[in-house]
């Protein structure tokens, strides 16, 4: 499902800096990892590499049998749209779209429209407890509700891999706990691989395994 093999990344510039080296990770359907580490250790960089938004100096990433290095920009974009889901700290909902249209966006990008899309959106909004808010705009929602919409959007197209970058960083503790439980339950239901990047030990504890990232590699915490 997901293979990260001997990945290395450095940033060039006046003062070149190695972010990390020799990172390896294998995940099967339903696996849920939390990745922790000091600020600047490369947690978000690792997610960007897995998503194909950046390229490693060495190593390879394989998602659903496809090697990222063998794909051009168009191929990586298509793979992201079809196989990956994203949850961000800042929600990134489109303010001019209703809740249901925000959730439906990944389906539209993958050419799924009409009754099939409507049924799937309804299923996800029911799962996150927001079926009654489908026509509201994001500005009418609380932070916790917006993040629940973001989780629904990340999962609506049944991705193989879901990447969550500090998804509870802007939430109070009660909303954070609710979103984390929701994310875990939906990942397990859909048998998607989940990778959660977080500074929060409480958030990390909801994952199956906790890994710590440093310049020397990825180790179990």
Counted beta strands: 10
Sheet/helix structural class: alpha/beta
CATH class type: Alpha Beta
The CATH topology turns out to be Rossmann fold
With strands numbered from the N-terminus, the spatial order across the biggest sheet is 6-7-8-3-9-10
Note poorly predicted spans.
none
Q: What is the H/E string?
A: EEEHEEHEHHHEHEHEE
Strand content: 25-35%
Assign the CATH architecture. 3-Layer(aba) Sandwich
**Helix content estimate:** 25-40%
Multimer state: single chain
Q: Round the Cα radius of gyration to an integer and report it.
A: 17 Å
Q: For the terminal residues, how far apart are their CA atoms?
A: 23 Å
What is the total domain count? Answer: 1
Tell me the CATH superfamily: P-loop containing nucleotide triphosphate hydrolases
Largest sheet: 6 strands, mixed
pLDDT averaged over residues: 93
Shape: globular
SS field, number of helical segments: 7
List keywords for this structure.
221 residues; Rossmann fold; 7 helices; 27% strand; globular
Account of the protein in words:
36% of the residues lie in helices and 27% in strands. The protein has a single domain (2-220), classed as P-loop containing nucleotide triphosphate hydrolases (Rossmann fold). 40% of the residues are buried. It contains seven helices and ten strands. It is an alpha/beta fold. The radius of gyration is 17 Å and the shape is globular.
Which helices and strands occur, and which strands form pairs?
Blueprint: E1 2-11, E2 17-27, E3 32-36, H1 43-50, E4 58-63, E5 66-67, H2 73-83, E6 84-88, H3 99-109, H4 114-127, H5 143-155, E7 161-165, H6 173-190, E8 193-197, H7 201-204, E9 209-214, E10 217-220
Helix pairs in contact: 3-4, 3-5, 4-5, 5-6
């Amino acid at each position: 499902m997901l293979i990260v093999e001997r990945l290395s990344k450095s940033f060039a510039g006046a003062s070149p800096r190695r972010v990390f080296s020799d990172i390896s990770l294998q995940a099967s359907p339903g696996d849920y990892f939390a990745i922790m580490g000091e600020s600047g250790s490369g947690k978000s960089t690792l997610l960007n590499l897995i998503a194909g938004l950046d390229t490693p100096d060495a190593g390879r990433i394989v998602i659903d049998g496809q090697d990222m290095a063998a794909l051009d920009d168009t191929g990586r974009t298509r793979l992201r749209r079809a196989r990956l889901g994203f949850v961000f700290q800042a929600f990134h909902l489109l303010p001019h779209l209703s809740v249901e249209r925000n959730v439906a966006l990944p389906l539209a990008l993958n050419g799924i429209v009409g009754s099939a899309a409507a049924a799937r959106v309804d299923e996800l909004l029911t799962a996150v407890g927001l079926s009654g808010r489908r026509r509201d705009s994001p500005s009418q929602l609380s932070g916790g509700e917006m993040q629940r919409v973001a989780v629904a959007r990340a999962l609506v197209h049944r991705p193989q891999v879901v990447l969550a970058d500090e998804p509870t960083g802007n939430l109070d503790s009660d909303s954070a706990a609710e979103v984390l439980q929701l994310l875990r339950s939906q990942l397990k239901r859909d048998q998607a691989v989940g990778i959660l990047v977080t500074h929060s030990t409480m958030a990390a504890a909801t994952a199956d395994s906790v890994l710590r990232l440093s310049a020397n590699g990825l180790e179990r915490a």
